[in-house]
Design brief:
globular, L-fuculose-1-phosphate Aldolase, single chain, alpha+beta, 7 strands
């Protein structure tokens, strides 16, 4: 394993971070990172527990063909979904898929995750959408690729910028999140699970709730993101 050492090590750290955050049990999840200059992604191998992952286990996949270009392990079965997202979103450098408990509950309920508070607005500009269900023909065909396609269609329907709304709930399946790099993709997956849990609990307490105002949503999102952001320390 002499090629793409740094990319592989980042993918190992990202997958282990998902376990440490409680987003992944057993083999229920995967993270990938792109090297745009080399035209490849590194992704967790299929069926390997995130916590057991070693750099030498991580396969390297061509971003155009989807073929393995380095490594001996079979890549995650979700690789075609990741590849679809990378091809469509040139500013995305990392993709994460989990079956984290609360975000997956919203996905299985086939419900958008509403923006009920400022914690949500700090990370996502609006509700996190759920996709439509895949058709029998899509499921029987190139299932994982069609999963990526339905994510793209959902974002297009909402008119969403993928870095302002960096997650989608795949109906009856689970969440996908992404970011400018794999570290931010992990952060967005962690934030998604946290706000999914808060929304679930808030609705249990209140019965029903309206989304926060557009003004409060924009204020919280914009103070952390974009040219006018003032949250945190300047670099």
């Amino acid at each position: 394993m002499t090629r793409f050492v740094d990319l592989r090590e980042r993918v190992v750290r990202a997958n282990r971070a998902l376990v440490d955050a409680g987003l992944v049990v057993l083999t229920f999840g995967n993270a990938s990172a792109a090297d745009r200059e080399a035209g490849v992604i590194a992704i967790k191998p299929s069926g390997v527990a995130c916590g057991d992952l070693r750099p030498e286990d991580v396969p390297i996949v061509d971003l155009v063909s989807g073929a393995i270009v380095d490594g001996t392990q079979r890549p995650s079965s979700d690789t075609p979904t990741h590849v679809v997202l990378y091809r469509a979103f040139p500013d995305v450098g990392g993709v994460v898929h989990t079956h984290s408990p609360f975000a997956t509950a919203w996905a299985q309920a086939c419900r958008d995750l509403p923006c009920l508070g400022t914690t949500h607005a700090d990370h996502f500009r609006g509700p996190v959408p759920v996709t439509r269900a895949l058709t029998p023909e899509e499921i029987a065909g190139e299932y994982e690729g069609q999963t990526g396609a339905v994510i793209l269609a959902t974002l297009a329907e909402r008119g969403a910028d993928p870095l302002e709304l960096p997650a989608v709930l795949v109906a009856s399946h689970g969440p996908f999140a992404w970011g400018a790099d794999v570290e931010h993709a992990v952060e967005n997956a962690v934030a998604l699970e946290a706000v999914a849990a808060s929304a679930f609990r808030a609705l249990e307490l209140a019965g029903s709730l309206d989304a926060i105002s557009d003004e409060l949503l924009s204020r919280h999102f914009d103070r952390k993101h974009g040219a006018a952001a003032y949250y945190g320390q300047s670099t």
